Amino acid sequence: MKAIVVTDQAVGTAGMTLVERPEPEPAINDVVVQVHASGFVPTEMAWPSTWTDRLNRDRTPSIPGHELAGVVTALGYGTTGLSVGQRVFGLTDWTRDGTLAEYAAVEARNLAPLPGDVDFTVGASLPISGLTAWQGLFEHGRLRAGQSVLVHGAAGAVGSIVTQLAREAGAYVVGTGRAADRQTVLDFGAMEFVDLENDALEELGGVDLVFDVIGGDIAKRSAGLIRAGGTLVSVVGPPEASPENGQAVDFVVESDRAQLGEIVQRVRDGRLSTNIGHVATLDNAVAALNPTERIKGKTIIRVRP
Ligand SMILES: NC(=O)c1ccc[n+]([C@@H]2O[C@H](COP(=O)([O-])OP(=O)(O)OC[C@H]3O[C@@H](n4cnc5c(N)ncnc54)[C@H](OP(=O)(O)O)[C@@H]3O)[C@@H](O)[C@H]2O)c1
Question: Is the pTM value of this prediction over 0.90?
Answer without folding.
Answer: yes
